Amino acid sequence: MKYNFNYEHWPLLVLQMSEDMDDKKEFEQFIGNFLKIFEKNEKFKLLIDIQNLGSVPIKYLLQMGAFLIKIKPLNKQYLIGSSYICSKKSKRLLDFVFTLHKPVAPHKTAESYEESLKFLVSL
Predict the structure, then answer these.
(1) Distance between CA 92 and CA 3 in Å, rounded?
(2) Percentage of the chain surpassing pLDDT 90?
(3) Is the CATH number 3.30.750.24 carried by domain 2-121?
(4) Whole-angstrom Cα distance, residue 35 to residue 32?
(5) Domains of the chain: which residue ranges?
């Protein structure tokens, strides 16, 4: 999996993810880099672009779920809102997941940067 944390427009953080997620070491590095966001001790908005993310094995989805539960207190403290740019298929899946597990901050699934940015600017 390739990923990039872009802090250029902080407090807007843009996370781009692409390719297949199939390497344990890469996944652990991603988690470590994600945790670094909270070291700033500042509120932020998160835009996640998963349009080009490939397949994700169920074991990593479960680990990501456990990770999100672990960082929930940090998200409550620092996350202003988030938006996910994804395909229509992924959008339906994310919307379903969010009905089961309510995010701690306002969120939106979108199909374009424009739509995501408009939402995040409004927060």
Answers:
(1) 22
(2) 62
(3) yes
(4) 5
(5) 2-121
The H or E element that residue 95 is part of is helix 88-100
Please state the separation of Cα 92 from the chain's center in Å. Answer: 16
Element (H, E) at 55: none
Asked whether 51 and 87 are in contact (CB, 8 A), the reply is yes
Mean pLDDT of the 91-119 span: 88
Contacts for 111 with CB less than 8 Å, ≥ 6 apart: 85, 86, 87, 88, 91
Q: pLDDT by residue (tens digit) across 12-46? A: 999 999 887 778 898 899 999 999 999 999 999 99
- Per the model's pLDDT, the better-predicted residue between 58 and 76 turns out to be 76
